[in-house]
């Protein structure tokens, strides 16, 4: 196991429209190959991929961190 403690805490999947090309299952495989112990998903304004992300990361033994990037606008 690697001594690296790096964890992605700001990462968008293909559920963030027009933003990121990362599909969840290949992402989980890559994260595991980098020996990362955890990875976060912070899609723009939605959580549609949360269950898929959670299941894919758990299947690879990676701790899933679920988040959502939101914006606040004044009226």
Q: How would you describe this structure to a colleague?
A:
The chain is an alpha+beta fold and 75 residues long. Helices cover 27% and strands 19% of the residues. α2 links the parallel β1 (38-44) and β2. α1 (24-33) runs parallel beside α2.
List keywords for this structure.
75 residues; alpha+beta; two-stranded parallel sheet
Structural class: alpha+beta
Helix % is 25-40%
Mean pLDDT: 89
Topology pattern, helix = H, strand = E: HEHE
The total of helices stands at 2
Shape assignment: globular
Task: Describe the secondary structure blueprint for this structure.
Elements: H1 24-33, E1 38-44, H2 50-59, E2 63-69
Parallel strand pairs: 1-2
Helix pairs in contact: 1-2
Summarize the structure.
With 75 residues, this protein is of the alpha+beta class.
